[in-house]
Each structure stands twice: as C-alpha cells, then as structure tokens.
Description:
The protein is of the alpha+beta class. Helices cover 38% and strands 26% of the residues. It contains three helices and eight strands, in the order E-H-H-E-E-E-E-E-E-H-E. The protein has helices at residues 19-44, 59-86, 163-177, and strands spanning 8-13, 91-96, 101-107, 115-121, 125-133, 139-146, 151-153, 181-182. A four-stranded antiparallel β-sheet has the order 1-2-3-4, with no helix packed on it.
Amino acid sequence: MTIQNTPIRYNLILGSKRISNYFWLVISFLGGAGFFLAGLSSYLQIQMLPFTKIENISFIPQGIVMTFYGSIGILLSIFLFANIVFNVGGGYNKYDKSLNKVEIFRLGFPAQSREIYLSYDFKEIRSIKLSIQEGLNPKREIYLCTKDQRQIPLTRVGEPLLLSSIEEEAVDLSLFLNVPLEN
C-alpha cells in the first residue's frame, strides 16, 4: 500500500523464486530420479535402488515406462531449476507522478529479449481493470488498460491473492493514477 502524497509508487513482482517452485523442483527431481533408476535397474539387472527389488520388474513394458516417466520428471526439474535461477516473471511496476509515467519491467528466459520493459504516459492510460474468476482455477488479476485497447497484467502469476487485498490494491492504484476502475 502506498501513501497518496508520495509522487512515486513502486511494486516488486515476485517471479519464479517462490517456495512452491522449490518444493516442486525437489519432488519432481526425486520422483524422476527414482523412476529412472528403477527402469535402468530393470534393464541392467543391477540393484541401483536399495529399497526396491528389481527381480519383479521386467524391462518390457514396466522398465521402459518407468525410464520414460523418470526422464520426464528429471527434465521437468531441470526446467523448474532454470526458471528459478533466471527468476522468470520477476520485475517491478513503477508509477511516477512527477514524470507522469508508468514503467513495467519483467524478466524472461535468456534470449535477445530477456528483459521486457514497457513505459506509458499517464495520458495513455484508460483505466485499471480488476479481473476475478472463481472456481477450480481461480484468477485474481489487475490490468493496466491503455487507450489503444491493450491490457497489461500488473499482478504476479501463480498463487491467487486474497480477494480483499487485490480489491484494495486496485482501488489504491486507480486513485493514485486518477483513472476509473473497471470490473
């Protein structure tokens, strides 16, 4: 939350360096390594895992399937590790009343366009939009709507925020920028 008298509002956006991503990294790596070693043990007929008996596992079809699932689990953990290292999705939103500018910065994967930087004048901003979807996959997001019909997400991706806090944040932001709030 920002005090209305300050000319600059700065919001840090948490990227992939979240506890849940660390948790899923460890789980997918351990599970994938276990399945991969079990499949490899059934092929080589060597006991690689101390808590399994490979005599009961034939390589075709169980060992092949376990090796495949293990490979997928390990690849998923490598992908999560890369996401965490490069902090994909992390960045900031900066609203500066003295310059009448909104700056949005996000990080992506290493490439030519790893850094995404958007800058808008206050006069280009049409409104702030609050999008709330409840259900199995709830979404609670705040968008910056420009006059050229763009909708730029301002909230982090991932775990949905509390309904009261996201509503309060959207109202504060619309008051700070002096633009209307849409549903």
